Amino acid sequence: MTSTTIDTLRFATAGSVDDGKSTLVGRLLHDSKSVLTDQLEAVQRVSADRGQDAPDLALLTDGLRAEREQGITIDVAYRYFATPRRRFILADTPGHVQYTRNMVTGASTAELAIILVDARNGIVEQTLRHAAVAALLRVPNVVLAVNKMDLVGYGQPVFERIVEEFAGHAAELGLPSFTPIPVSALVGDNVVDRSAHMDWYEGPALLEFLEDVPVGADPSDAPARFPVQYVIRDGEVRWYAGQLVSGSLRVGDRVTVHPSGEGSEITGISVLGTEAEVAYAPQSVSLRLADQRDVARGDMITAGADAPALTQDVRAAVCHLADRPLRVGDRVLLRHTTRTVKAIVKDLAGAAELTANDLGRITLRTAEPLALDDYAVSRRTGAFLVIDPADGATLTAGMADLA
Questions:
Q1: Which of 29, 208, 268, 398 is at 20 to 30 A from 36, Cα to Cα?
Q2: What angle do CA 396, 398, 401 make, to 5 degrees?
Q3: Could you report the per-residue pLDDT of 92-144, keeping only the tens digit for each?
Q4: DSSP summary character for residue 56
């Protein structure tokens, strides 16, 4: 990265109700000078109307009227801000168990998750649920923010006890590592600036860590995966358009079209209407092949020997999103990248059904083979959605486990 390049970190926040998550996010925005004057004035007015002496910074993220009236977060609030070192896309997700599906939405594309814990209460059931979601979604980096340290006298033993307990649960959940940071969102300790009240803590403040944590691997370094979105006919020539979700493709590359398995060669690449010799993920491009193959929307074009697994038996970890339950024997649609196929639910790992916000495991049998990657290898081509064929509603989010 050159000195003039500023990258972007997508991160999500999660925590149990009243752990101070929205206040932490508000403090992060406020102290990093990322709040417009009119926004701050609006928060000050609402806070004054409530009889509060100081601005309630949680209102900077609790944007829905119902949230402001109830003082809780019930939807994913996205915020965009930047420092001289990095841009940020922040998803502030709900804490209630009935909104677990919202956390899945917010964390599905995140490269870092902040899990908040109230120092007075320690690890609670929702903490473990949020850690499970982070593990399920393979979020590359996790921060355990132990909040409200001011209410426990900034005690190091309290912090260390919570970290030790969380570490034990993280190992059981398959969460490989995490970074603990003691904070006070209300006061501002270790949020943007390091705290003078916790000289025993030698690590970075939260914003320092967010600025320095490595952003995920370059998608162009991964095996090439090109789901065909649509076919463009230009006289006798066909171009196949879509987004190169990983890897790179060059003119002259030998490629394979899945699920047919037919081989061909790239004879042309168009990027924004201009011919190019090479394309890199995540560019949207059009490809021209040497042969007039029967390629259609939903097919996957790959290069090299590292091809995805073709399977009709899909095993996956899932989060059920819909109010309608999912049961063994249900006939559904499975949407993977640009391909949608019929499927049937074969097994729910012993569960009778999955209801809204349930985390579980599933086995599906598809009517046609899918070019599927393991989610642990690729979050883009290892993810899928289970769709209700009756009305097109999304039922379940799945993360393929092909091991």
A1: 208
A2: 155
A3: 776 555 556 677 777 788 899 999 999 999 999 889 988 988 898 889 999 99
A4: -
